[in-house]
Each structure stands twice: as structure tokens, then as C-alpha cells.
Write a structure and sequence with these properties.
EC number: 2.7.7.49
Strand order of the largest sheet: 8-7-6-10-12-9-11
Keywords: Endonuclease, Hydrolase, Multifunctional enzyme, Nuclease, Nucleotidyltransferase, RNA-directed DNA polymerase, Transferase
Pfam family, one: RT_RNaseH_2
Oligomer: single chain
Protein name: RNA-directed DNA polymerase
Helix content: 25-40%
Low-confidence stretches: 257-274, 282-335
Distance between the termini: 37 Å
InterPro entries: DNA/RNA_pol_sf (IPR043502), Retrovirus_Pol_polyprotein (IPR050951), Rev_trsase/Diguanyl_cyclase (IPR043128), RT_dom (IPR000477), RT_RNaseH_2 (IPR041577)
Mean pLDDT: 76
Shape: globular
Radius of gyration: 23 Å
């Protein structure tokens, strides 16, 4: 189908195997895109089954999601299966449940941390013993899925905000954008740390969270400029693990440069319990943050290496800025 509809942009239609979604910002554009798709199908001598066609809908169910003008949300009939799921009796049943939940993990804040007790039960040679901790995780996942939020569509012309955080057991991130004066979530991401990663120091875990978040949100942030990472990307003679992480960041963010930087105290947004890091692309620096307490701790008005160094130091030595370990540090950058 991609070959048949070659030349049509994603703003006109979306394709998955033999399923086609035709979109438009208004009715006239929708008609125009519909005409283009039908002409392409006619040229390929393909026919459509009218019984399987739905025209001029304001929202559509697609691959387990409801897609509408407001954003993307989980499909209620699909999620209802999770709500009625009974307690798993063996590893096979538990893996089936986790597989379904993992499909919707981008809707669940702190998914890895919540599901960690259940994932441990699926480890090789581990006895299958359903504990109270597993029951809490099982119930929490079902509640999180049945009350999942609507995720907004990314706007490439607007700034992206990346909140990352790290705890002893996991790292997490939230990608969002400010739309109509309100910060809207585009996607959640989280990952449980392996045994070697859990032995990292606090600063290494925070850096790992940034690197993994940039990798996961590659399709959104590739080529973007984040001021708080400038000094790190220009680090002289890096060695070992730091060098490998810097190389990964340079591959994803080749154009990051010196920008204005602002540091703010903030309650943690992702699933970790420690201090977090915020990378924001923007020209003006807001006075308040929507995620929590926002007393300004440090302002780096200078440009270049000093400003970026101040930003990085605030990330790597968070406790010299804030006393409350649960508060986080927020970075603001610009294009």
C-alpha cells in the first residue's frame, strides 16, 4: 500500500498494511486528500469494500487507539479487557497481561516502576509466588490503563519540553509541549535499571536518563537544540562510558548550541523519586512552571561555555541548589 500511495504526505493519509486513514484540517482539505487517495487507488486498479469504509468521522478507532482532533487515547473496548483481567496463575498468563499493558505504556506515567514487581516474576528460574507487592502492581496497572490521559499531537513548529528523572530502580521521561498556554503531554517513557545500572552514582543515573530519553524520543527531538546539553556535547577528551553516551547524544542532537539557560526548583515529574532534569527549547523564559513549586534558584544569563557549565553543574550537583531532595532542577534553553 505504501507503494500505491507513494507521494502522499502523512498530512494527507496514514497507512498501516491495507488500512488507510485520510485526514484533513478542515472539510475542504479532507475532501481534497480523499480525492487524491481514491485517484491513486484507481490508477492501481484497486477496489474498496464499502462495508469496511467509514467517511467523514471526527474520531476513528485505529490499532487499539482512538484518534481525534483532541489527541490520541486508548480504545475503551480494548482497555475493558484489562479491567476484567483476573489474577495471573502462571508466567504465561502474566506475560500476556504485561504484553497488553506494554503496548499502551506511552500513556502510563512511571510504567516501568509500577510493573517492576510483575516483570521480576517472569525472570528465568524465579519461583512464581504472587505477593502483596505483585497484587498492588497488578491493580495499579489496571487503574492506570483505564484512566489513561489523552496524549496531544506534536507540533514541529513549537518547542519540545523533555523532563527526565532517575531513582534507584528506574529512569523516566516525559515529552510535552505548551499548547494554548497549557503544558500537554505527548508521551511518557520509563525503563527499569539493570543490576549494573543500579550501581551507578546519582549523576550517572541522571545522565543515563537523558541519553535514553533522547534515544526513545528520537523521532521528535532529532536535530533540536538543548542549551543544557551544550557543554557536555563539547566535552574535551571524554573516556569510557561518558564518551559513549556523548557520542549517542551527538548523533541525536547534532545542532545543539549555546543558549540562554535558567534553573528552577521543581517537584519531580517522571517516575523517579530523585531530582530531575528539564530541557526546554524556547526564546522567552516563563516565570512559573506548571509542575510544582517554582522558586528560581539560579539564573545563568551569560552565553557560551559559562552558562552551559552552570546548567550542567546544577544537574550533576543538585543538592547545592535545593535542600529538598524530592525537588528537581529545571533547564530552559532556546532554539
Amino acid at each position: 500500500m505504501e507503494t500505491v500511495l507513494r507521494g502522499l504526505s502523512p498530512e494527507a493519509c496514514l497507512i498501516y498494511l491495507d488500512d488507510i486513514i485520510i485526514v484533513g484540517r478542515d472539510f475542504e482539505e479532507h475532501l481534497s486528500n480523499l480525492r487524491k487517495v481514491l485517484e491513486k487507488l484507481k490508477q492501481a486498479n484497486l477496489k474498496l469494500n464499502p462495508a469496511k469504509c467509514n467517511l467523514f468521522l471526527r474520531e476513528v478507532s485505529y490499532l487499539g487507539h482512538i484518534i481525534s482532533a483532541e489527541g490520541v487515547r486508548t480504545d475503551p473496548p480494548k482497555v475493558a479487557v484489562v479491567k476484567e483481567w483476573s489474577q495471573s496463575r502462571n508466567v504465561h498468563e502474566l506475560r500476556s497481561f504485561l504484553g497488553l499493558c506494554t503496548y499502551y505504556r506511552r500513556f502510563i506515567k512511571g510504567f516501568s516502576l509500577i510493573a517492576r514487581p510483575l516483570h521480576r516474576l517472569t525472570e528465568h528460574k524465579r519461583p512464581f509466588v504472587w505477593t502483596e507487592e505483585c497484587e498492588v502492581a497488578f491493580t495499579s496497572l489496571k487503574e492506570a490503563l483505564t484512566s489513561a490521559p489523552i496524549l496531544s499531537y506534536p507540533d514541529p513548529d513549537k518547542q519540545f519540553i523533555s523532563d527526565t528523572d532517575a531513582s534507584h530502580a528506574s529512569v523516566g521521561a516525559v515529552l510535552s509541549q505548551e499548547i494554548d498556554g497549557q503544558e500537554c503531554v505527548i508521551a511518557y517513557w520509563s525503563k527499569c535499571l539493570s543490576k549494573p545500572e543500579r550501581n551507578y552514582c546519582v549523576t550517572s543515573k541522571k545522565l543515563l536518563a537523558i541519553v535514553k530519553a533522547v534515544e526513545n524520543f528520537h523521532s521528535y527531538v532529532y536535530g533540536r537544540k538543548f542549551a543544557s546539553l551544550t557543554w557536555l556535547l563539547n566535552f574535551k577528551n571524554p573516556e569510557g562510558q561518558i564518551a559513549r553516551w556523548i557520542q549517542k547524544l551527538q548523533e541525536q542532537l547534532p545542532h545543539s548550541n549555546d543558549c540562554q539557560t535558567k534553573l528552577t526548583k521543581l517537584q519531580p515529574h517522571p517516575d523517579g523519586k530523585g531530582g530531575g532534569v528539564r530541557n526546554v527549547e524556547q526564546n522567552s523564559l516563563p516565570a512559573r512552571s506548571p509542575h510544582g513549586k517554582d522558586a528560581i534558584s539560579l539564573q545563568a544569563d551569560g552565553k557560551g561555555r559559562k552558562a552551559a557549565f552552570a546548567s550542567l553543574m546544577a544537574c550533576f550537583v543538585p543538592y547545592f541548589v535545593v535542600r529538598d531532595y524530592r525537588r528537581k532542577i529545571e533547564f530552559f534553553g532556546c532554539f
